[in-house]
């Protein structure tokens, strides 16, 4: 994978907006004054029409956020990395010319019948197991019926009342730069469905354009319990889902490509109140940091209305996050709940899983992020190191391979996190694409530890190894880099004396 | 699917969503029959995008009521000891291997699109899903 995000080295998107510098008190998060300072500069440039300056607004909100808690749930759609679509044999290649990856089935032409791609079930079971869910050994597909130009059949094949997996959980660790902490969030359900096409609205407004390449691409919908309490937790949840689907190899999880999409539901309630507040859906967040900021904004907006006694102005609706203005705006007021007239998809048989099938998949699962983090912790690495090394599975594998060959744990971690990561960042490479092998890194580390070469020389050799490959031993000889040790020097001097 | 057929499907799905959904989460206890309410016909016609003039709506309402009541007879069956079926049929699975195949006659499909503006399908501007 060419583009890999390394924590702590490449500027993480949401570090640009330290509005996420939050501390936790009474289950509610509020901004420190530091964040308001860095926000003020950008916001003043952007919005002169804001009545309240960001700094005073934040201080006011700080006070009242104390008394409220946010209830957040996230629905994530993950595009599966199968070779063909869910119900037909069309390939799906992101970036293809519009309407080239199509056939009568995914175009919804009359007389066609869907046939399920077996890989979709396999991926769904993988994710269900990784999320600690109960699998439904028998599940079915349903038709979710509505009319929209990007939905060729007039219905979406989905799973309504009997999804393939229910009742799981996901665990994660919050980044150390935001105070750290371990979290466990419930997963309500995971189900299989198909994607719709892409709808583009033309400039002049009289018509729209449809590209059906994406229609029929398999999706997994992952619904969380409303256990999330802040923008930060939401962003980390989404990042962990991304990490998980990448580890499992079921999706590339790229938000930019649309392979990972999150819709968020936010409500607030005064602490102590049992009833949930009114739920507001937020769409159009294109990055984890945008999710973080959008949710924090929405929490503030709702809390602000509550504090003014205007909480009846919070209505169940869908709001859009405006990245430019850094605020949510009404999309359209929801007029009651949609009636999708669900009924079982008559053209598809039941999805039946056997114990053997599930056991085989469970056995094939590699070490998942949560298990890896705990293992690295036990090895004595700091949480910061743990989070860095486990973020990308390839990096973790490289690290494991290096210490397997005898390298000292902390030194291996340091080399990977500093010099190697910096190189990867600059050259926009993934750790699999460099010429350095774990074997040679281990060799380098033991050479330095054993005193054969200095740390400084080590850095030089490392650069050479990364860009051109080769072995440590060969490079030391070639460049005559052996650090003169005292005994060697004495022998040399003694020899000289004798020669003289 | 013909519009009549999809209308009937709409009604039966209404049945599904009204009875099954609530009974589903009562551990599929079908021994307790729930009242079958007639649908809001104008609303149903709207969701199914079938235009009905008031006279037709009036005509159809009792007929639909009859269909629902006819299905409702099934509630008299004692299902205490029966394992719920998820859906009718026992053909077994019908799965496909994940092997790409290009459809050969894409041009014919696109030629049949009523309003095609290379490379997109041209449609009226619709912003709202409702």
UniProtKB/TrEMBL annotation, chain A:
Q: How does it assemble?
A: Subunit of the heterotrimeric GatCAB amidotransferase (AdT) complex, composed of A, B and C subunits.
* GO cellular component term, pick one: mitochondrion
Principal subcellular localization? mitochondrion
Q: Where in the cell is it found?
A: Mitochondrion; Plastid, Chloroplast
- UniProt organism field: Nelumbo nucifera (Sacred lotus)
Organism ancestry: Eukaryota, Viridiplantae, Streptophyta, Embryophyta, Tracheophyta
Record-stated family: Belongs to the GatB/GatE family. GatB subfamily.
Gene for this chain:
GATB
By what name is this protein known? Glutamyl-tRNA(Gln) amidotransferase subunit B, chloroplastic/mitochondrial
Q: Which InterPro entries match?
A: Asn/Gln-tRNA_amidoTrfase_suB/E, Asn/Gln-tRNA_Trfase_suB/E_cat, Asn/Gln_amidotransferase, Asn/Gln_tRNA_amidoTrase-B-like, GatB, Gln-tRNA_amidoTrfase_suB_CS, Gln_synth/guanido_kin_cat_dom
Q: What is this enzyme's class at the first EC digit? A: ligase
Automatic annotation (TrEMBL), chain B:
Q: What is its EC number?
A: 6.3.5.-
PANTHER family the UniProt entry points to: GLUTAMYL-TRNA(GLN) AMIDOTRANSFERASE SUBUNIT C, MITOCHONDRIAL
Q: Name one GO molecular function term.
A: glutaminyl-tRNA synthase (glutamine-hydrolyzing) activity
Entry's Gene Ontology cellular component terms: chloroplast; glutamyl-tRNA(Gln) amidotransferase complex; mitochondrion
Role, per record: Allows the formation of correctly charged Gln-tRNA(Gln) through the transamidation of misacylated Glu-tRNA(Gln) in chloroplasts and mitochondria. The reaction takes place in the presence of glutamine and ATP through an activated gamma-phospho-Glu-tRNA(Gln).
Q: Report keywords, A-Z.
A: ATP-binding, Chloroplast, Ligase, Mitochondrion, Nucleotide-binding, Plastid, Protein biosynthesis
Q: What subcellular compartments does it reside in?
A: Mitochondrion; Plastid, Chloroplast
Query: Sorted alphabetically, which Pfam families does this protein's record hold?
Result: GatC
Q: Which reaction(s) does the protein catalyse, per the Swiss-Prot or TrEMBL entry? A: L-glutamyl-tRNA(Gln) + L-glutamine + ATP + H2O = L-glutaminyl-tRNA(Gln) + L-glutamate + ADP + phosphate + H(+)
What's this protein's family per the entry?
Belongs to the GatC family.
User: From which domain of life does this come?
Assistant: Eukaryota
In its UniProt entry, the species of origin is given as Nelumbo nucifera (Sacred lotus)
- Reply yes or no: does the keyword Mitochondrion apply: yes
Q: Which GO terms describe its biological process?
A: glutaminyl-tRNAGln biosynthesis via transamidation; mitochondrial translation; regulation of translational fidelity
Q: How does it assemble?
A: Subunit of the heterotrimeric GatCAB amidotransferase (AdT) complex, composed of A, B and C subunits.
* UniProt protein name: Glutamyl-tRNA(Gln) amidotransferase subunit C, chloroplastic/mitochondrial
